[in-house]
Amino acid sequence: MTTIGYGWWQLSLPLESASITGVKIGLIQGNVSNREKFSPQGNRLSLQRYRDGYAQLARSGVEVVVTPEGALPYGGEALYRSVADLLQTYRVPLWLGGQGELPNTNSLILWSASPTPLARYDKVKLVPLGEYVPQILAGIVRRLSPLEGEFTPGDPDQVVDTPWGRWILGICYESAYPEHFRRQARSGGQLLLTASNDAHYAPAMPWQHHAQDVARAIETDRYAVRVTNTGYSAVVDPQGRTLWRSGLNTTETYSTTVYLRQTQTAYVRWGDWLTLLLTIGTTLCFWRCKLFPKIESEVKR
Questions:
Q1: What is the pTM of this model?
Q2: Does 69 participate in catalysis according to the annotation?
Q3: Within a 13 Å sphere around the CA of 154, how many CA atoms are in the beta-carbon half?
Q4: Residue 171: what are its φ and ψ, rounded to 5°?
Q5: Active-site entry in 37, 123, 125, 131
Q6: Helix, strand, coil distribution of the chain in percent, nearest 5
Q7: 269-289, pLDDT tens digit by residue?
């Protein structure tokens, strides 16, 4: 009852105060299928939708714009050049999903008017057989794998400092790894941002992926902004409430103000201590229940 009461009290507290900094952020859901994206026509469609979405959001007064994982299917200088004129016109920073320069990485890169990035995040948890072939299977699988080139994982200890402070970033598959977000929150991350491409999954998958990011928002006590290619893009508050969610297989832009938070939850500080405590408690209870009846029966004899 005490725990329930504490939880109810926490939920009743206001999330923001005048001292908390807000960031007006814009999201673009491009809605270009993977099959289309890698064709010349699909490439042009992707570029058009992200350019149009960026210009629209920049004119609306947002402070930063975010695109999904692999928004444009290339990297290096070509990635910056594809939006350089818009960045120099509007000067609103843009998180652009694409490939990093060598080593080949699945990245989110933050650019403004200069070709020198303001920040960059490289995906750490790569998808087996989707983004790399595990060494143990390489000899068997490589001939059958559809991969034209493998990605290189990012530094597992990287932190992402932006003009608005330190952020917590993840790309797609990483949403399933709570420790990945916990480490960044413990290192001072103030806002959770994930970029995904769920276009190749069945409709149930985007719901599951959204639920994972809801859990990550609650664990870290952070606002979570998730941007996807085909849905569901969303904004989630630190109490796990979805403030906005896009449609599925729709082209959308959305802007809102999210807030930077510096709290440290028990999970962020100490990790899965509750799971360990409950495991020990259950083991002791099982041992007691099994042992004591034997002792009592021996005493009765």
A1: 0.86
A2: yes
A3: 24
A4: -120, 115
A5: 123
A6: 40, 20, 40
A7: 998 877 778 788 888 887 777
